[in-house]
Each structure stands twice: as structure tokens, then as C-alpha cells.
Amino acid sequence: MEIVRSQRRNGSDGSAGAASLPLYKSAPSLEVRLEEFERCAIDRLRVLKAISDGLSRGKKPEEMDNLVGELWRANMKHQDVDETLRKDIISHFALRLVYCREEEMRRWFLSMETALFRYRFRLQDAEAQKSIMNELQLQYNVLSHAEYETLKDKLIQAARSVNSTSNPETVFYKVPFEDVPDLVASRRVFLLKGFAFVPRNQVVSLVCTIFRSNISKALALTNRKWRATIHDQEKDRLAPIVEALGNSYLGPDYSQPRECAEISLKDINQLASSSFPLCMRHLFGKLKEDHHLKHGGRMQLGLFLKGVGLKLEDALAFWRAEFSQKVGAERFDKEYAYSIRHNYGKEGKRTDYTPYSCQKIIMSTPSTGDHHGCPFRHFSEENLRAALNKMGVGGRAMDDIMDKVRNRHYQLACTLTFEATHAASCETGINHPNQYFVESRKIFQSKNQQNQQNQQSQPAA
Hints:
globular; four-stranded antiparallel beta sheet; mainly alpha; two-stranded parallel ribbon
């Protein structure tokens, strides 16, 4: 797939054979504008990130089916079937380039693409599914009538243990058990002498195993190409877009205060203890303790404070009060004040810089002596538990949070922390530190208003 500044329409990817579901075997012969490349990637990323959130929240299969269907219609589907297919292909290969670059990114992309493929495969009719299986060279034998009759009772028993209300399946595939690890792990198939007997309505697992393997190999190959040639060849044109997409945040803009008044210096200590997310609370505490933060910490905390409403004059006073205790006021004005004014768009290119999103913070790589980054990813388990305890988190909530951390669901761990410390649900999930702050202030303001109303409604003594 060639990325160009002007678009010329060509045919679409033929890798799906007769079916309408692409298998993304190889990049198609398309010329794509940079703008279309980025737009398609962002739309598909919305789908994948919402799938990730749904899965990490433990949504049931039928809930996930409804969610993915709504996401696909809202972000990817076009009235013209050919246009839908074109966008499908462009967006997949665009994100493959974005997410091939690091192991954790590859793992996430692979899991989400497989989950999306699983849903879409189940929507195909029997003929299309068979075509896809042929395209993937799945030459499994259907269990003969004689073998079926011999194992009938055990096959039906295994099927009913999964879904007792469904009619028993009569068509089974006999496959090596290692080809359907998800079915074996969840005990959804009958096993005998190294073979799994997969009912036709579970054949999606066979297909997804091969699909996942193919995409995994393709990601590794794309990574080698990116490092060897593409990055250097496209360092001034495509590479900046690819790298930005890897840290992309798709939610509201928090470059300016949202839904809350400007904060003042006299309130900042109280707000830090009540409404800062753990990443910012940690930075704030280290600043108060050491009276200094390295560049990464200053940027992460400084832009966050800007986004929650700390004015430039107060920001300068805040940082000067802390840094002057260690480096002196004169050195602060000479070496550090410029960067603070720069973040507020008052120096250099006059850019209005945006606070860091969760994704950007998670993907950062703090080194020794740094305090920025995401505590849920970068802290040891012992340090994370201690930090959460200071926030008042314990018991079942602590166990749930640590479980999400172990499974690399860092944003969901932050969401559960918010819910535990505010005794309120956060249905949308935490995707940005400034979102955490805004939602926290809404809850406290609502409680304050309720308390005032209760006091006013009480009869005078």
C-alpha cells in the first residue's frame, strides 16, 4: 500500500476470496492520501479501543456482539459496500504499521483485531464461512456418521454443558486439540486421544487461531521492515503520523479547563488529595518532597495543572515556590520559567500544548530518578499497593485493581481506583488524567449541593 498526497482509486484487496471479510494477507495495490490514511486509522482505533474496554470490563458475549455491531456501524460502515471494504483494508494496514513497533503494542493490536474478526466471522453465512476456511487452508475432516454415533452421547453432553438451551449440533470437526486452545481452556469441547471435537457452531475458534497466527507473523515482519527501511525513508512524512497514532487520544480536548472553574494556589493541596489521579498525585507528592522534578515529570504535571485551570501567573508562582527551595529563585527564573511559559503558549511557537492522555503516559519510559509515567504500569506491586492504600483503597477493590494491572488493563485499573475512592461508577472509563479530575469535581460538587439542600430543608431549632 503506497501512501501519497493525491488519491487514485484502484481495486480492493482480494485476500478474502469470495467472502466480504478480508483476511489481510498482504497490503493491497492502493494509493492513499495521508489524510485518508490517518482518518481511517483513527476510526478503526475507536472500534478497537472500545472493544478492549468492553472485554476488560467483563462484558458478556452477547453484550460484546451488540457493542461491536454498534461500533462498526458508527465508525466503519459506508452505504457503498466497496467503500466499506476499502476503509476496512486501509485502516487495518495503517494500524498494523502503527502497532508493529513494540511488543506490548503488537500484543494489544493482535488481541483486538482477533476479537473483531471473531465477531465479523460469526455474521457470515455458511457459504462465506466455508470460503474463508478454504482461504485459510483449514482442511479439517468432518466427523463421519459412524464416529458420530459412537461418540454421540459425549458430544451432546459437552455441547449442552456450554449451552443447555440450544439444539444439539450434529456436525463436528475432528482437530488436534492444540488448534483450539481457547475451547480447551474453557472446557467447551470433548477431548479424546489428542483430538478436540469441534461443533460447527464453534468453528470460529479454528478460524481465529489461524487468523491470529497469520497476523502475528505479519506484525513481526512489518516491524522488521519499519526498522530497516520505512522509518528512515518516511521520517519527514509518514513516520510522524504513525508515531502520533501510537499515542493517540480520541476523547475531549483538555488543553483548556473544562466544566470547572479555574483553580487557585490556595486550593491546590486539597484538590491534589481529593481529585488528582494517582499519576498526578504521585508527581505532586514528589515535587513537595524533593522540591524538584525532571523534565518528564514537569511536563506531565505542568500540562495537567494547566488543563484543570491553573493560570500562568499561579503556575509560575507554584513552581517557583517549590524549585527555589532547592535551586534558588534566580536559577529557577533563568532555567525553568521559560518552559512553563512555553507550555502556556507564551514563548517559542506560541503553541497551546495539550495535557498528556493516559495512552501517552502509559507508553512513556521513565528511567532512574524519573517520577512520571503511569503508576499502574511502572510501579512495582509493593509500591502500587502502598500508593493505593494511601488513597484509602483496600479489600476487594484492591484485589480487583491488581488483577487488572496483572492483565495490563492499566486504564481500567485507574477507573476502578476512581470508583473505589469516590463511591461512584464511571461508565465511560478513565482515558485522561484531566477527565479523572473533572469527573471527581462533579461528584464532590454534587455532594456539596445535596448537603446544602439538606441543611436548608431542616427546620430551625
